[in-house]
Amino acid sequence: MRARVRTKCEPQEAGWELENGLYYNYMGDPGDALCSNMPEESGCENVPIEGGGAFPRQEHIAGPGCVYTSGYNGYRITPGDMKNMRLTRYIIPKPENTVDEEDAPDYEKCSDYFITDLSITTQDHFDPGQLPRVRYGVDNFFAQNSVVTEDIELGVPVHDACWKMFEHISRQRFGKVDLQGFMALWMRQACGMCGFQNIKHDPMIQKCKQQWWDHIPGTEYLAANPYEIPGFALSMQEEYRECRNESALAKYKNSTSLQAKEGPEPKYWVNSTDPFTKLSAELKTMLLMELDSKSIRNLRLVSRAFRHLPQQVHKHLILKELPWFWEIDEIQTRKQEHYRNMYIRMYGEDLSKLGDKLGAQYRQTVKDTIERKSPPETVDWRNVYQTLKVIEKGRIGVRNRVRIWGLLEDIVGRIEKLRNTPEAHKRYELRGEGEDLLNAQPTEEEKEKGMVTHAYYCKRCQGGRIERMVEEEKMDEDKS
Q1: Is 264 part of any domain?
Q2: How far apart are CA 116 and CA 130, in angstroms?
């Protein structure tokens, strides 16, 4: 869980600690923080917390230059950016001989596990957050991210945003949400510190993960909701412009202009030795579809035959290189609805205000939009692609989405590999006809072959832990 330090313009509930709701400093007295001692430069201040009793505590209020590491600066990340990231869902084994709930999603009905609703309070260490309802009669479990040997009901905590992203990738790869596969992998490769054994996390996570989370300025993206990104869909809708030569406005101007004349096409020098100039447009497009963006850039440097890229190539690059942008079609539909509502306001749903003075082509465009007829592909995908590349690292929610998408692709790839492992399919006593044949519990054969590696630490995070200990020892030596 991540903490947030509110600004002086925000209410008290906009700041919170690592575990419960109100802000509290785990890292020591906020008065010791550098920014507290340089308020003219940082804009920070410390105020007493009401009800402190015999040992009054202080709340740190962030200024624009805050570098306090016990919580993220409220000027750099909003409560909306962190929406629901302190709350949790839990994956829990179904009780034996249970009947599936009627409203359970399909992926639960063919699995040994179910996933709870989003908690309404924050998890406190191993005590789960309060849930809005009890499912399958399970109301007591141990919230833990690694396999425990004790005979206790286990609930694997997952962020709602991360789980929804897993659903996207799982459907792309398997055509379904593979809850059974997720837990089968977890039972074999769980890591209490990083989720799954030796998964490649952002290097900054190792730097931030001390005894308590170290909120290093600049790492706010690690706490941002990657699924619900405030204003992302709306801002991208603005970038869904039509190609200039295909837009309704251009068609209107062309249909009403009486004096416009096409000038002679500019002539470009053509290299007679360039073999690509001899290819048809169709073949050039087919070639471009096989290349990544870097190869396309290099190709354009050596051949003027690729000076202008077809719009479909840019859309292909979005689907291929930016798969985390799953709103690609949804936003286009919203944009069309925006135009539809605009045309209705301008001309009426029956087009009674359209008149006869406007060109026939423009009138037809307006009519088709209002009737929701699928228009020809006219989106400027080049502009959409370029915008996504800019915000990929600029907006904290998008940056975190890109990071988590990479992790989930690794996890789904491991599930696919596990499903192709014969040892994992030796399963008996199925609960029902729709039961998944993948055994979530590792078999004895898998254990004997060393295929079960779950532990509280994996080699990767254990290495990071040792590095931190060495650094701390050096710091102590320097102080002495």
Answers
A1: no
A2: 11
| Domain assignment present for 260 | no
| Among 325, 340, 327, 326, residue whose Cα is nearest residue 375 | 340
Is 153 within the bounds of a domain? yes
What is 390-415 written as a DSSP string?
HHHHHSHHHHHHHHHHHHHHHHHHHH
Overall number of domains in the chain: 3
CA distances from 4 to 84, 97, 209, 304 (A): 13, 44, 16, 52
Give the pairing type, strands 58-61 and 45-48.
Answer: antiparallel
Q: What is the dihedral of CA 211, 217, 222, 224, to 10 degrees?
A: 130
Q: What is the pLDDT of residues 122-167, one digit of tens each?
A: 887 778 889 999 999 998 898 888 776 566 788 999 999 999 999 9
Residue 152 belongs to domain spanning: 89-200+396-464
pLDDT in tens, 237-284: 888 887 755 444 444 444 444 344 444 545 555 566 889 999 999 999
Q: What pairs with residue 209 in β-bridges?
A: 213
